[in-house]
Design brief:
The complex is a heterodimer of chains A (about 300) and B (about 450).
Chain A (H helix, E strand, L loop, with lengths): L19 H23 L1 H24 L10 H11 L7 H13 L15 H12 L7 E2 L6 E2 L2 H8 L5 H6 L11 H14 L5 H16 L4 H6 L3 H8 L10 H21 L6 H18 L12
Antiparallel strand pairs in A: 1-2
Helix pairs in contact in A: 1-2, 1-3, 1-8, 2-3, 2-4, 3-4, 3-5, 4-5, 5-13, 8-11, 9-11, 9-12, 12-13
Chain B lengths: L23 E2 L5 E5 L9 E2 L6 E2 L4 E4 L8 E2 L4 E10 L5 E9 L20 H10 L12 H4 L10 E6 L8 H8 L1 H15 L3 E7 L3 H11 L5 E6 L8 H9 L14 E5 H13 L5 E7 L7 E6 L4 H7 L7 E6 L6 E3 L12 E6 L16 H5 L6 H9 L3 H6 L10 H5 L6 H17 L1
Helix pairs in contact in B: 1-4, 3-4, 3-5, 4-5, 4-7, 10-13
Classes of the chains: A mainly alpha (about 300), B alpha/beta (about 450).
């Protein structure tokens, strides 16, 4: 019989075919839904903003890796996701050079300084966004109205400053002022459901996050539907709190993460100086993730309770 | 309601290659290589020497220790070597090489024992031991040892493992379809030997013909029923099976007898039935020869000790470029480096995968997606264990229950970053066990 050289790696010998790239590009694909809504409502400048941040994120990653003499891994798709996510979190009229700064900070300070993919404790896109909010507070809070392109307030600002609510249908469809990708709850939910169906995000975090905000709103005498549909909550709950790298690994940990993010969001929205608190809430819970992981190690099969 | 456990995966089962193919008897091998260790426990001492003539069923390796099992000649012929040979389980093992005389004569000492009704429990256990019967699912634990728990461990349930959850393999499936009487007879012997009144034959629901065949045989028999299991890997893992069928959990570090259960493979039961009917010890078994890299996949009844090369030749040889030859299934089987290793008592399958199916992939960093956490049937944190193993933090790995890993492979199967988690945890286990021995 003919002799072959066989591969003798250890078991298992088959693989699911799942890959980091597949996950990242599916997430990016799902993000296209709110992106399209943003372009529909805010016009070409929104498209330009998304392209800018995505390119800037990818180039920053490549440049950083080149400088560090590491293999360039931009094809894994993670920088693309960060780039798109950042754009979705920015005011559609933001000057493009500021968006570039945001993307560069997101990738460099938010991800690469920690060692790159999988090592970052905080969601890189949110690091970029918070950096911009602190650096350019005026431009980062200049919102344009979808209909006429004039500047105006977001529904959350109107609620906070004047106590004025906004029509549910508008909130749901997205023809309101706000960040590029946060306005259309409908498109975000569709994208989120796609990812849930494909198993690329996990249901516990968005469910507990949104559920906590809804329950606390009712308890504190606010309108839960308005709270759920306005601001960055939907986008945050489906696309940022669910970031695998920066959220807990155990099922219980995911529930705690969602609960915590919900509590922080409500505190900032109702009692804080900012009208919106989703970015800060998720970043705060990112910081808690290692601790949550430490204390939510699942009971293993056959583990005997200490008597 | 189908019985099942928490965690696990649904890999493509790929059983269609062979699940409808009746078992064929392989041609008598020209030469067999019979390792003195085909079981968990002490190896046997060879009791034949070069030049001796032996016959089928004759004992050639004596088991002295309690945890051990004798081995027997599987063909008649002349002993041409007693020396270390490569073993499919890895390493070199003292083996007896027999050249066939082509006559396949049965050893004179082989006689059918008394009927099961007349045998005492101790006689049954002795018959099982002397027949060299070990767990046929792959682990190879001596069966008689399993049936002789210390007196303080009471047994109330026997489970026959007919789950066959490994993709590709159909040996147990065909056995249950074609010889359900043997499976049940073997089970009855185990029940009598242990005095247990309650037994389940556990089969995944993707084998309806096997479930039907077994149900026909157990009709009217007291205390035996079929447990239909959900099709999920590793449903046939001993701990998962016990949990699915009885709801009990084997304590960490413990054995099935700690929860009053004995689990035996369907193939093991059939081997016991063989010894009961003819007195012939374990010298042959059904093995599934399959995979994308095999021309004619088959279920073959082979003699123990037949070289892989001969078995593969009888299935038309390799198809395309063979990338991996595996003893067992794709999830837990052992990749072989050469084709001259023999099939042993635990060879449930020989799986050949084409090179394109086993191409090595680049490993990426963990993105903490927790797929491994959801898949682990023991509810470990494979990603954490993998990281600890990479850093050599063995004590911490032990705290995270590395030793409870059953090495089923689910974590590595689902990992999108292609981190060899199972291998890393295995490494940690080896280090932890080695440090305990010091």
């Amino acid at each position: 019989m003919e002799e072959f050289k066989f591969i003798t790696t250890s078991s298992p010998h088959i693989h699911s075919g799942e890959s980091v790239q597949k996950i990242m590009f599916n997430v990016a694909g799902a993000l296209l839904l709110p992106t399209v809504a943003g372009i529909y409502f805010f016009g070409l400048r929104a498209l330009l903003l998304v392209i800018t941040t995505t390119l800037a994120a990818v180039l920053t990653e490549a440049a950083f890796q080149k400088l560090r003499g590491k293999p360039i891994t931009v094809w894994d798709g993670s920088a693309v996701v960060t780039g798109i996510l950042l754009a979705l979190n920015l005011p559609p009229g933001l000057p493009l050079w500021m968006a570039v700064v945001g993307a560069a900070v997101a990738i460099s300070l938010g991800k690469q300084v920690y060692g790159g993919l999988g090592m970052n404790p905080f969601n890189p896109a949110l690091i970029g966004r918070v950096f911009l909010m602190i650096s350019f507070p005026v431009q980062m809070t200049t919102w344009i109205n979808p209909v006429d392109g004039t500047t105006g307030a977001t529904p959350l600002q109107m609620m906070k400053m004047q106590g004025v609510s906004t029509d549910y249908t508008k909130l749901f469809l997205g023809n309101i002022g706000g960040s590029l990708g946060e306005t259309s709850a409908l498109m975000i939910i569709l994208g989120g459901l796609y990812l849930l169906y494909k198993g690329y995000i996990e249901w516990r975090i968005p469910t507990f996050y949104l559920g906590t905000v809804a329950v606390l709103s009712v308890l504190l005498g606010r309108d839960p539907v308005f709270e759920l549909l306005s601001g960055g909550l939907m986008l945050g709950a489906f696309f940022m709190a669910t970031d695998m790298v920066t959220s807990p690994i155990s099922r219980l940990g995911k529930m705690i993460f969602g609960l915590g993010a919900g509590i922080f969001t409500v505190i900032i929205r109702f009692y804080g100086g900012y009208p919106e608190g989703v970015s800060f809430s998720i970043l705060l819970m990112n910081a808690f993730t290692p601790v949550i992981n430490r204390y939510t190690v699942p009971r293993i099969y056959g583990e005997v309770k200490v008597r | 309601m189908l019985k099942t456990f928490k965690g696990g995966i649904h890999p493509p089962y790929n059983k269609d290659f062979t699940k409808h193919k009746p078992v064929e008897t392989a041609k008598l091998p020209d030469r067999v290589i019979i390792p003195m260790s085909q079981h968990v426990g002490a190896p046997c001492d060879p009791i034949v020497k070069v030049g001796d003539t032996v016959k089928k069923g004759q004992k050639i390796g004596e088991a002295k220790a309690f945890v051990s099992a004798p081995v027997h000649a599987s063909i008649s012929g002349r002993v041409t070597a007693v020396e270390p040979r490569p073993h499919p389980g890895g390493g070199m093992v003292i083996s007896v090489v027999i050249e066939s005389d082509g006559k396949d004569e049965v050893f004179e000492g082989i006689k059918p024992p008394k009927s099961l009704g007349e045998l005492t429990p101790d006689e049954i256990k002795n018959l099982i031991r002397e027949s060299g019967i070990v767990g046929m699912g792959g682990a190879g634990f001596p069966t008689q040892v399993k049936l002789s728990p210390p007196p303080e461990k009471t047994i109330d349930t026997v489970i026959v493992n007919g789950a066959e959850c490994e993709p590709y393999l159909t040996a147990d499936h065909r056995l249950m379809v074609e010889k359900p009487y043997d499976v049940v007879l073997g089970l009855e012997a185990i029940m009598k030997a242990t005095g247990v009144k309650k037994a389940y034959i556990a089969i995944e629901e993707n084998k309806p013909d096997a479930i039907e065949a077994i149900k026909q045989v157990i009709k009217g028999k007291e205390g035996i029923e079929v447990a239909e299991l959900a099709t999920k890997y590793p449903q046939g893992g001993e701990k998962q099976l016990i949990n699915a069928v009885t709801g009990r959990e084997v304590p960490s570090g413990g054995l099935p007898m700690d929860v009053h259960v004995i689990v035996d493979n369907a193939g093991t039961c059939a081997a016991i039935a063989g010894a009961l009917k003819t007195g012939m010890p374990l010298v042959e078994r059904i093995t599934t020869v399959t995979g994308t890299g095999i021309k004619e996949p088959k279920n073959l009844l082979i003699r123990i000790g037949t070289p892989f090369s001969e078995i593969i030749e009888q299935c038309g040889g390799f198809k395309g470029e063979a990338g991996k030859v595996i003893m067992g299934g794709p999830m837990m089987g052992l990749a072989q480096s050469a084709m001259d290793v023999p099939a042993v008592k635990g060879t449930s399958g020989i799986l050949v995968l084409e090179k394109k199916d086993v191409a090595l992939s680049e490993q990426l960093p963990c993105i903490r997606c927790a797929r491994c956490v959801d898949a682990c049937p023991i509810h470990l944190l494979p990603t954490t264990l993998g990281k600890l193993a990479e850093k050599g933090m063995w004590a911490e790995a032990e705290e995270y229950h590395a030793l409870d890993c059953i090495e089923c492979g689910c974590c590595a199967y689902v990992c999108p970053a292609r981190i060899p988690l199972t291998q890393l945890i295995r490494l940690a286990k080896n280090h932890i066990i080695a440090s305990k021995k010091k």
